Amino acid sequence: TAGRSCGDGLLGAGKHCRFPEGLLLSHSHHRAALVLSSSSAYKRFSELLPKEERENARSVRIPKSHILTLPELRANPFQHRICHVFSTSEAGDDSMSFEDFLDMLSVFSDSATSDIKSHYAFRIFDFDDNGILDRKDLEKLVNCLTGQGEESRLSSAEIEQLIQNILEESDIDKDGTINLSEFQHVVSRSPDFARSGGVQQ
């Protein structure tokens, strides 16, 4: 077994290295309270703009580099995927409109349902945007969560064991991938996901 990563709680507790507990977007040290009201979101959005652009905040897009300065994203291993998933930019630059920004804060808030959080978590973990979590997605997921430092880096055998454990736990139809309904089924059985909010800062 991949005892090192199972034992430290990164990818779940107990024998099975279960899917949801460690695969939540909760690795930032900043637990800022996100208020869902449009006015407070608008204030935060406009503060990311240069002063001369703030009056027209509703009609401008904020570059990804500015979004990544938010405390909620700064230490999040999935920061680039989060920007990608919530951005509606036709240019593909992951910039955000105010509506995109509001959607992101809404999903991060305590008010969002477990279904909404798990839907967006699935999209964030689907690195190639093909609608399923396959072995490549799961390998990237494990690497994001365990980091690239010498102490936390897993061997290829440990990564393979973790992926196998995740698939055994989650791949109900045994096709070698995890679809959205399988992911949500596993998440629905995890009290940790519901309590912590799944996709969170």
Automatic annotation (TrEMBL):
GO terms for molecular function: calcium ion binding; magnesium ion binding. PROSITE patterns: EF_HAND_1, EF_HAND_2. SUPFAM superfamilies: EF-hand. Residues 113-148, 158-193 form the EF-hand domain. Coiled coil: none annotated. Transmembrane segments: none annotated. This is CIB1 protein. It comes from Sapayoa aenigma. The gene is Cib1.
